[in-house]
Specification:
- With 624 residues, this protein is mostly helical.
- Helices cover 66% and strands 5% of the residues.
- It is built from 25 helices and six strands.
- A four-stranded parallel β-sheet has the order 4-3-5-6, with helices on both faces. Strands 1-2 form a two-stranded antiparallel sheet.
- The longest helix has 82 residues.
- It is globular and about 105 Å long.
């Protein structure tokens, strides 16, 4: 196992390069940008469909009103993804271009959106009461068109970069306002994109007889079907956990390849359910969020609470209790790095296998017991048991699935937990013995110091008697008219006075000023993968700043959503799970004049728990 871990660690540069790949990053970030559409539309779907479980059906008029909100949001998610993916891909392209010759992301978004409509929609026309009506069929404008949306975004970005980089644009005189000049600058690349997509669509339809979006689905459908099997699911989510175990953010590598299936299967399940059929698709976004990653990658919900309440080790109990609340909401980085789970050989097997077992159990419930697959999407920070119940539409079998998953995860993790607990208890016992020995040594040293102090006191007393005798002798000499060495007579007294003055001077402390006053008015942005872990450090900084009376503004966000707000900050801190993006972040920071830094795993968790240390860290990064 250690050889396997070493081999994977050796490949970390390669895996980090994959995670940083601008095409995969654009898919991931574009996908994240449309998640509010998926989540909010599911609320209307929940209200419409969940009552059906208990045999209640809304009147047709009410159901149509509810479904209209769903159809006009989820039904055009492909259009939105074409625009958001193009925007994020444009940001990556601009990183390679000079500051004074950047691609206009708004123009790119519009061009990608039009290209998507050309490749995925069919013209329809009909007559209603003698009135001729024409429009566009929207069958592939939703989740079925996601793959086409990604392709359109990449094609648009590549075309724009080709022309902008070579200055093949319409140039206006300097006297023309910049916004007008930009409009003319976009005409050539925009026109080329439009002609390209129009020509490609015309040729494809004449050859195959259907739109490009339908062809993409037909090509990738076998892969989606294979991914939905036991082996495919194990490979996908085993790899995701394996990457995380060695410190590489697994979802960044794996999720872009399956993102289209995660959403299209969700919509497919709902369509089958509404048609009275069994919803059989397993691979969906809520399944990934709440079943595979129950409590975060590695299905760490159960093991975190085992640490908190079953561990005999003081350290394990402290880590578990400190991480329990974030883990309940799917933010498990404090536990991954604090336990630690990452690169901890003891937890290698359960960390990889628990998520696989969870998804296999869920597939068994769907395939064998007849439970419908996930049909509703909720925010990924929803506590896993709630997300499972709601995502499955409150089916009775969902309430059997939840305890089954918790029990199995407990059984998988428990033997490894006991081994680790014994090891930590042994370490703490040795540390306690060392501490006892240290305290004994300190006590002996204190006793020795006390004896030495008594000796010093006796010496001082003897000196005082001698001084008094000398003074009396001097007085007698004065009375007899003899000369006296006044300086020597006063040596002891003056020396004592000088020592007291020196001591008083050394004990004077400079209490003026706030050590973090220079942070006043500064702004700090913390970035992680999903915007969850970054909030922990941002909150710790804000709290510590308030305690010191400092006006320090902090914010948290997900990497990929930061470029538009990044220039407003003085410092950007990158969480360890997003460390593979640091080179890109640093390049963006140099371009915008913003300081950037990256943190290590344990260091980051320590900073989230120690506000004073987090302020010192920020001051150090800003050179204050």
């Amino acid at each position: 196992m250690e050889k396997l871990i070493a081999l994977i660690e050796k490949g970390k540069p390669f895996f980090n390069a994959i995670a940083r790949n601008k095409y995969l990053k654009a898919i991931r970030d574009g996908f994240i940008s449309v998640m509010p559409i998926i989540i909010v539309s599911s609320i209307f779907l929940l209200v419409s469909a969940v009552p059906n479980v208990w045999g209640f059906y809304w009147p047709t008029e009410i159901n149509d009103v509810l479904m209209k909100a769903y159809n006009y949001s989820m039904g055009i998610v492909g259009i939105c993804a074409a625009a958001t993916t193009a925007k994020h891909f444009c940001d990556a392209q601009n990183r390679d271009l000079p500051k004074n010759n950047q691609i206009n992301f708004i123009s790119v978004m519009i061009a990608s959106l039009i290209g998507f409509l050309l490749l995925s929609s069919d013209a329809i026309s009909f007559t209603d009461n003698g009135v001729s009506i024409s429009g566009l069929a929207n069958g592939y404008m939703g989740s079925k068109g996601l793959l086409t949306a990604f392709i359109c975004a990449f094609a648009t970005g590549i075309i724009y970069k080709f022309f902008i980089k070579r200055n093949i644009t319409i140039k206006m005189p300097e006297q023309v306002p910049p916004n007008i000049s930009q409009t003319f600058k976009d005409i050539i690349p925009f026109g080329v994109c439009l002609v390209f997509f129009w020509g490609f669509d015309f040729a494809f339809r004449n050859v195959f007889g259907f739109c490009f979006a339908q062809g993409v689905i037909q090509v990738f459908q076998p892969l989606f079907s294979a991914a939905d099997g036991y082996v495919g699911l194990a490979i996908i989510y085993g790899a995701m956990s394996l990457f995380w175990f060695v410190g590489v953010h697994g979802p960044s590598i794996v999720e872009p390849a399956i993102s289209a299936a995660l959403i299209s299967n969700l919509e497919l399940n709902m369509a089958m359910y509404q048609a009275g059929e069994h919803a059989t698709a397993v691979l969906t976004k809520p399944l990934q969020d709440f079943v595979v990653a129950m409590g975060g990658t590695g299905a760490t919900l159960v093991i975190c609470f085992m640490f908190a309440f079953l561990a005999k080790s003081k350290e394990m109990r402290a880590v578990g209790r400190a991480s329990a609340v974030p883990v309940c909401f799917g933010v498990n980085e404090p536990f991954l790095f604090g336990a630690p789970m990452v690169l901890n050989p003891i937890f290698f097997i359960p960390f990889i296998f628990a998520p696989i077992a969870n998804i296999w159990i869920t597939k068994f419930f769907i395939d064998v017991l007849g439970m419908n697959g996930f049909m509703f999407s909720l925010p990924w920070t929803t506590p896993a048991p709630v997300g499972i119940a709601m995502g499955l539409g409150l089916q009775p079998l969902a309430f059997l699935l939840i305890p089954a998953l918790l029990i199995v995860d407990f059984l998988i993790y428990f033997p490894f937990f006991k081994v680790y607990d014994r090891e930590k208890c042994a370490e703490e016992a040795e540390a306690d013995q060392a501490e006892v020995a240290q305290r004994a040594a300190q006590k002996q040293a204190a006793m020795n110091a006390a004896f030495q102090g008594k000796a010093d006191t006796a010496s001082v007393a003897t000196g005082a008697v001698a001084q008094a005798a000398a003074s009396m002798a001097a007085e007698k000499k004065r009375a007899a008219g003899q000369s006296v060495d006044e300086e020597s007579a006063g040596n002891a007294t003056s020396a004592g006075s000088d020592d007291a003055a020196a001591s008083a001077s050394s004990n004077t402390t400079d209490v003026a000023g706030n050590p973090y006053a220079a942070l006043n008015g500064r702004r700090v942005l913390v970035l992680c993968q999903g915007g969850g872990t970054s909030g922990l450090l941002a909150n710790a900084l804000a709290k510590a700043a308030r305690e010191h009376g400092i006006d320090l503004e902090t914010a948290a966000d997900a990497y990929g959503s930061h470029l538009d707000i990044m220039p407003d900050f003085d410092l950007v801190i990158l969480a360890p799970q997003a460390a593979s993006y640091f080179d890109d972040l640093k390049a963006d920071g140099e371009r915008m004049g913003v300081a950037c830094c990256v943190t290590r795993g344990k260091q980051y968790i320590d900073l989230t728990r120690d506000g004073e240390a987090s302020l010192a860290f920020v001051a150090e990064q800003l050179g204050i």
